[in-house]
Write a structure and sequence with these properties.
With about 130 residues, this protein is α+β, with helices and mostly antiparallel strands. The protein has a single domain, classed as Ribonuclease P, Pop5 subunit (Alpha-Beta Plaits, 2-Layer Sandwich). It has three helices and five strands; from the N terminus they run αβαββαββ. The termini are far apart. It comes from Hippolais icterina (icterine warbler).
Length: about 130
């Protein structure tokens, strides 16, 4: 074989392997909507509200799910939450079904979710051109 033949054989011997590993964490951008203009939760109260939602739907095991509040804006009641990927469905369902905060109607809205924190840094739907 000449040089071209050896290059073809080497190229044919090359095998590409892609290993896809599930992400360790998922990130959620959420917003709390309150029915009236009463007191807004501060960061510790917001975290407690998330834990309460998990406890109400999934019991003490659900409340033990490790959830981190990475950012929280009290003005907009928006937060970015981090949860282990295996707990994503539990957290999302608990937030969706929570209906009260301090005897006032409330609702969590999950605005975005991603296994990559960087993906939540911007929202193309809110982009102003």
């Amino acid at each position: 074989r000449g040089p071209a033949g050896r290059a073809m054989a080497a190229a044919a011997a090359f095998e590409r392997r892609v290993v896809r590993r599930a992400a360790e964490h998922h990130y959620l951008r959420v917003r709390l909507e309150l029915s009236d203009g009463g007191a807004r939760p501060n960061a510790p109260q917001f975290k407690q509200l998330v834990v309460t939602a998990l406890r109400e739907l999934h019991g003490e095991v659900g409340a033990a799910l490790p959830v981190d509040v990475l950012t929280y804006e009290e003005k907009t009641l928006s937060a970015i939450l981090r949860v282990i990927s295996s707990g994503l469905v539990k957290l999302w369902s608990a937030l969706t079904l929570l209906g009260f905060y301090q005897n006032r109607r409330c609702a969590f809205r999950v605005l975005q979710t991603s296994p990559f924190l960087l993906a939540l840094s911007g929202n193309s739907r809110e982009l102003v051109l």
